[in-house]
Amino acid sequence: MSKIHWLGCAAVLGCGLALAQQSGTAPDNTRTNQQNAGTATGNADNQRQDTSDIKLTQEIRKSVIADKSLSTYAHNVKIISVNGTVTLNGVVRSEQEKQEVEMKAAQVAGKDHVVDDLKVQPAR
Questions:
Q1: 95 backbone dihedrals φ, ψ, rounded to 5°
Q2: Of 1, 28, 34, 66, whose Cβ has the fewest other Cβ atoms within 10 Å?
Q3: Which helix (H) or strand (E) is 11 found in, with range?
C-alpha cells in the first residue's frame, strides 16, 4: 500500500474518533440492560435452545433487521423466545419504532405471545 493510502486511512479513522468523542452519547445501552436484568424472560440467558424457540427468534430478528426505516437501537433490541412466548427488551428511539418492532414480533409469534418490555429513549 502506498504512503498516501495509509495517510488517508489514518485521517478517516481520526475524524471518526473525534466525532465519536464530541457526540457525548453512549455507544451502547448498558445502563438499560442492567435495569432489565431482573425481567423474568427478558434477558439472553433465558433464550431456550429449543428448535422452535430459536426459529421464532430468528424470524423476528430477520424482520426487524430488514426494516431499514428503524434505528440501530431498534435493530439491536433483545428478542428472547421461551416456550413460544417472545419477550422484546431494550431501547428504541420512538413510540412508533416500539409499535413497529412489537408488530413484527406479533406477525411471527401471534399477538398474545409477545411481551413488550421495550423502552423509548429519543435521540438527544
A1: -65, -35
A2: 1
A3: helix 3-23
DSSP letters for 91-113: EESSHHHHHHHHHHHHHHH-GGG
- The alpha helices in 25-118, defined as continuous H runs, are 30-35, 51-66, 72-75, 95-109
Question: Which pTM was predicted?
Answer: 0.65
Q: CATH says 28-120 is which class?
A: alpha beta
- Cell digits for 92? 428504541
**What is the tens place of the pLDDT at every residue in 20-63?**
444 444 445 555 555 444 444 455 566 667 899 999 999 999 99
> Could you report how far apart the first and last alpha carbons of the chain are, in Å?
40
Could you tell me the residue ranges of all domains in the chain? Answer: 28-120
47: which 3 cell numbers?
A: 433464550
